[in-house]
Amino acid sequence: MTSKTGSKKSESKKTGAERKFRVVGTRPIRHDGWDKVLGRAVFGADIKLPGLVHGAVLRSPYAHARIVKIDLSKAEAAPGVLAVMTGADMPIAASKVLDLGEEVTNAVFASDRVMARTKAVYKGHPVAAVAAVDHNVALEALRLIEVSYEVLPHVVTIEQAMAPGAPLVHDDLVGSDIGERVEHTNVADHIRYEVGDPEAAFAEAATIVELECRVSRAHQGYIEPQNATALWHQDGKLTVWTSTQGSFSQRNSLSSVLMMPASSIKVVPMEIGGGFGGKIGIYLEPLAAILSRKCGHPVKLVMERRDVFDATGPGPGGIIRVKMGVDAHGVITAATADIRYGAGAYPGASINPAAVCVFACYRVPNARIDAYDVVINLSKTAAYRAPGSPQASFATETVVDEICRRIGMDPAEFRLLNATRGGDRRTDGPTFPRIGNVETVEAIRGSAHYRAKLGRASSPTKKRGRGMASGYWQGIGNKSTVTINVNNDGVVSLIEGSADIGGTRTSIAMQAAEILGIAAEDVHPAVVDTDSIGYTDLTAGSRTTYATGAAAIQAAEQVVEEMKKRAALVWETDEANVRFADGVFTNGAAKNQHLTFKELCGKLDTTGGHVSTTGVVNIRGSGGGSFATHLVDVEVDTDTGKVEILRYTAAQDAGKAVHPAYVEGQMEGGAVQGIGWALNEEYVVGDDGVMQNATFLDYRMPTSLDVPMIDTIIVEVPNERHPFGVRGIGETCIVPPMPAISNALRDALGVRLTELPMKPGRIMAALQAQAGP
Amino acid sequence: MTQAPLPKAHVRCQLNGQPVEFLADQHMSLLEVLREVLDLTGTKEGCNDGNCGACTVSMDGRIVDSCLVLAPEVDGRTIETIEGMAPPGGLHPLQRSFLEEAALQCGICTPGFLISAKALLEREPDADEHRIRHWLAGNLCRCTGYDKIVRAVLRAETAMAPKAAAGRTRRKKSA
Question: What is the pLDDT of residues A444-454, one digit of tens each?
Answer without folding.
Answer: 999 999 999 99
